[in-house]
Design brief:
With 165 residues, the protein is an alpha+beta fold. The chain has a single domain, classed as tt1808, chain A, CATH 3.90.1570.30. 21% of the residues lie in helices and 30% in strands. The strands form two sheets. It has a seven-stranded mixed β-sheet, sandwiched between helices.
Length: 165
């Protein structure tokens, strides 16, 4: 198989999304209710196609900007591009800005929650499950629960820590 580096990154991202419970669809086969979470590839926006738009319970909630693996050591320089897509208008939808932004090489993934009063990119081990980003799980006062935090060398999902408390 002769793939370019960005195609390899997208294959790795697809694998991680599927493992996390997302349904992946192409732009020509959209069914936003095929699962709790649907990731649509190459969704058209007013600024061009986004690599992936994430829908939870049929509503847009995030964007994934895919980058080739070689960009992993300097992934932060792509934050403004990903935020640009998060603020774009999605074709056929009247949407607000998307609150969740991921940038991923398939090996290195960062996440920014723009509902956070001081949003900043955090490195993750994997994408959030759709249920974690669900409106029934998430309210504006609980937006920090989707963030991951580091204790020592372990990364913990704050949502899980709050459920254990």
């Amino acid at each position: 198989m002769n793939q370019n580096p960005e195609q390899i990154a997208r294959d790795n991202i697809d694998h991680q999304l599927l493992a996390g419970g997302w349904v992946i669809q192409g732009i020509k086969q959209i069914n936003l209710h095929a699962g709790v979470g649907v990731a649509v590839k190459e969704y058209v926006t007013d600024v061009g196609p986004a690599d992936y738009i994430l829908f939870v319970e049929g509503k847009p909630c995030g964007v994934i900007e895919a980058k080739r693996e070689e960009e992993g050591h300097r992934i932060g320089i792509h934050e403004s591009q990903a935020e640009y897509y998060a603020n774009a208008k999605l074709k056929h939808l009247k949407n607000e800005s998307l609150p969740f932004v991921y940038i991923s090489t398939g090996e290195v993934t960062t996440f920014t929650d723009f509902t956070d009063p001081k949003p900043r990119a955090r490195e993750l081990f994997s994408f959030h499950r759709p249920e974690t980003l669900s409106s029934s799980t998430l309210s504006s006062s609980m937006s920090a629960t989707v963030a991951f935090t580091t204790f020592g060398n372990k990364c913990w999902n704050i949502t899980m820590l709050l459920k254990l408390a």
